[in-house]
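The protein record quoted for completeness.
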Amino acid sequence: MVVLAASVLSKSGKVLVSRQFVDMTRIRIEGLLAAFPKLVGTGKQHTYVETENVRYVYQPIEALYLLLVTNKQSNILEDLETLRLLSKLVPEYCYSLDEEGICKTAFELIFAFDEVICLGHKENVTVAQVKQYCEMESHEEKLHKLVLQSKINETKDVMKRKASEIDKSKIDKNKGDKGGFMSMGSGRIESSFSDMSISSSGSGFGSSSGLGLTADVDSFSTKSKGRQLSSATAPPKGLGMQLGKSQKTNQFLESLKAEGELIVEDVQPRAGQARVAAAAPTDPITLTAEEKLNVTLKRDGGISNFDVQGTLSLQILNQEDALIQVQTETGGNPGILFKTHPNMNKELFSNENILGLKDPNRPFPTGSAGDAAGVGLLKWRMQSADESMVPLTINCWPSVSGNETYVSIEYEASAMFDLRNVVISVPLPALREAPNVRQIDGEWRYDSRNSVLEWSILLIDNSNRSGSMEFVVPPADSSVFFPISVRFSATSTYSDLKVVNIIPLRGGRAPPPKFSQRTNLITENYQVV
């Protein structure tokens, strides 16, 4: 039995970890691993594939493949036993069985594979023994780490003592400087007296002494004022530290932007702007009709899931406006099933399309302007298998030509809605550089960290119900470009639910209060698989 290589691959054929146990060129092992995804069939029970030269023995582990590449003369029973042992080791070292978890523990997996297979032959070991061999606990290493940690702690203590000594010396120096002003002043005055006593005569002592005192005191006051001025105009130390920190932060943000990350800067609002925003007029009653769209389209055409879930919520700011009923009007879509809140009068809604509480003397709950959720009044749901109900369809056509893969993507939008902020996210294979986008209707952005190409269209209306994009990447399997995720929003809904009027009840205000209605359609999970 000879095991040529043990590898962990993704379902799309991307090699995450591979360990070779015999001498073989890199080109050969890459060719063997690249051929494996094309040989794996769907719906088959066996877990091995044979070619003219080698045998692939594999086992699916969630979204991954654990693969052994052996020669055809090896014992397949022993190969299966080796594969079973490796499948137990992989979850022991990987915290999550996905690409990120495998890549972070790649070296640990290679070391574990080396303990199981030596020169292509299986060792007689268990999972516990492999873990023990890989840990390689050493008493000398522990002792060395303890000594090193004690030195680090001792150095930290010395640093703290030095820092406290420096702080004390600064405090003493400041105290000395403050006392030095008085000593310098007194010294100048005494020196002036001595100079005057030596140079002046007895008759002119008063005049000369007066001049000496005045000049010396003026010079002292001038110097003291100059010292205070320089200290007042000097920049504080804290500003210098903040400038350096912001420069490092800007460099870090620029590097993230270069990697494709979307950076949203946190801008603090000014006090005046905050006051203007708080004083903005708000309607006392706001009703929000929102629908969430869950659609799963097939890449070859057709629809596998179409589900619309909608809610109507009520937000009341003032308590005096809470004793009301809501007159609605539905669009007459027979596929929509409405369901009222348990506290609502169901008969009143089914007969007259009026939403009101069972107890007419009970007011609706009120909330602040910042409470955007409001109180739920009505829910509805619609499911369909009709593809004409889909607001946006995506067609993806990958084709390999030479050493390049040409991918053409087109969208077709229904005339039912005007779609806003449309983002079509296409997964790509791992690339060193951004893809070559040759033609696009809209804008594009490449997220290198997640390896995703985002196609953005600001608005889709009657002027652009269809559009296309074409880009080129290195050779890749067509399944790499799926699933395609789509995000958008619209201001109209499938239910076409409208609030016609607000009816005040007894005890409320006589004229009907002002109200506003918001309508929104958003995508919750919209994919092409």
